[in-house]
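Field reference: sequence -> structure
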Amino acid sequence: MDWLAVEKRHDSGVYAKSDFVITRGEGAYVYDTEGNRYLDLINGIGVGFLGHGHPKVVAAIKAQAERLMVLPQVFASDRRAEFYRVLTDVLPEPLSRVFPTNSGTEAVEAALKFARAATGRKKFVAAMRSFHGRSFGSLSVTWEKKYREPFKPLVEPVTFIPYNDVRALEEAVDEETAAVILEPVQGEGGVRPATPAFLQAARERTERTGALLILDEIQTGFGRTGRLFAFEHYGVVPDILTLAKPLGGGFPLGAMVTTDAVADRMPKGAHGSTFGGNPLAMAAGTAAIQAIVEERLWERAERLGRVFMEALRKIESKKIREVRGLGLMVGVELKEKAAPYSKRLAEQHRILSIQAGPTVMRFLPPVVVTEEELLRAAEAVGEVLNE
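Structure field:
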């Protein structure tokens, strides 16, 4: 069966497809229908921080699938309660209330609604180059015009400010602002870390004006940046935290976490999710968090990321503008389009990467990758750039 032809025939058409079909994954690798092995430095765009098929996550899903898979949140669940406890135990004390979702976009939707309910205000402040999702609410605080323009009018009012511009932030956030929403490291926007001064100013300004601070850690949370949460790099704690990607160890799972003060202002029944908080996702999430925490995998991510970025910075190529990132969230900004080089990397070296904007090659390696594999990847990047 030509599975590629079947998928292209019936797919919605919104994705540009690879020319190969992936059938299975193990650790840091995936395999196609021809048996070719690829070093997967995308991992579901940051989902597979633990790699493919982590044994603790697989075992938890198998056991829960045989026990109970579906349960709406109107009924309490032992698995959901356990997930809440394990998640909130690794967060600063004010972040104690959880709304479970199926994705990062849904977590952002919940954050925006909770922020409006808690403050009674309408306005949001977001950053240029931001990406928070593609549903109408999350799209409203996403900067990229190619995502926004076809679907206007969106949720308003939203003010966009330059990322890392403290003065612009302080001018934009006022007594009409419900919340400021920021990524500690902009992913889709080019792998751009925030400056400490910027996030600290966001925390101070929101507290002064009565607005909330939402930190979108959908891509940066749970070890990827070399800390368990990226906000630890900056010494700030948000009022609302959005999580997803690595949270489920590969299983679809997201969460919005907030404080008692915010959660208690949300009316009963004002938000919900049919599948959110289902026992299967809760079991996967609990296993994933425990694996990351018990092995302190953020420390490994910090070390491997440093090795990888050092190797990338040694590449002698006039096409490279900058190598930047935090932990195992790495971007190579080029002076030209990045897509052709990512394509060559996959075809010639069987190493998978993805773009972050038009000119950035983005790498989101799993924490199970080895130094040797990352050095080989850096060497391959140099080869495709210097052909």
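Note: The chain has two domains: 3-54+296-385, 55-294.
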